[in-house]
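Input sequence (387 aa), recorded before submission:
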Amino acid sequence: MSLSPQDERHLQRALELAQEAVGLASPNPTVGCVLVRDGEVLGEGAHHYDERDHAEIAALKQAAARGHSPQNATAYVTLEPCSHHGRTGPCSDALIAAGIARCVVATVDPNPLVSGRGLAKLRAAGVEVIVADPASTLTQQAQHLNDAFAHWIQHHRPFVTLKAAVSVDGKLAPPASLRTASQPHWLTGEAARADVQELRHAVDAILTGIGTVLADDPSLTDRSGRPRRRPLLRVVLDSNLRTPVSSQLVRFTADDLLLLCSATASSDRESELRNRGVDVLRLHDNEGKLDLRSALQALAERNIISVLIEGGSSLNGSLLRQDLVDKLVLYYAESELGLDSVPFAEGIASPYVVQQQLQRMEHASLPHGTAEDIRITGYLHDPWTGI
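Predicted structure, token format:
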């Protein structure tokens, strides 16, 4: 059964609630819920991990606080109500006990072990269940919000997004001789850089390499201004612990910094960095190079379900060649940097080669003075495939 215009409007509101909770739900999914009867909104809610209540329970509690009974109401939920016991009881049971008549869902649960069970439980209790068309914009929005969770729950590995700003000729930056950390070269405009802050806000960790730290001295912070449940973890692949104690990462936010190094890295350097509040983890290496799969597994063990790559040519190339990138976000500036400039990824001719492999590719224009930057996003691995 297709959604009515009213159904679409209320489900869109549930998606807005979920969007507002980005950064507050991980490692759980981001979900919004709206309870409606006869066109009146009875209660709304979104899941915040620290508050424990799932979106459906938050909406039921708000309805009760307003003096509304949810009897014969419609629940609009961005993700299939859960059917199993976790930190809380099943939301499908709570909705049935509340007496709702209908449940409109944007997308099913991505966990293959429970997908569809919440909907089946609702239907068995006499609740009319409507699931949005998988090809609809509403479903795509709901899935985008939980790409990381969908990937995590199936593969138990962080969802990896590689972000890069590149020139129109596919370069990351001018030659090293023409730039310094104190004078960074900005390819893109303010709108694109603000967009990157939204990417940072939506992930649990940023991963970069020691080359980027030494060349650019980045801070890698979430400057979106939006609240988040846990600090953004900055992770540096630093085989020999060369991260300077004078770097911005160590001086200003060492408590949220993790350095991944090889087994042979200096113990004295490790002690010095730990004394500054930096977390250091030794990983197995392969001829002096850290194993990237082991690095991602180490993050998974810390309940990091999403990682944004903000690296240089070497790290980009290694991740792409090992097929460890799930999503690509490229910001193209109109300028050219020339043949001697830093390539997008070592061993890969240009970002255009990778673009040809993308699924669900989208384009957007971002203002840059009198010109514009072009953002291209797409998936190398669809986290919802097979659900």
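Checked by second reader. The chain has 13 helices and 18 strands.
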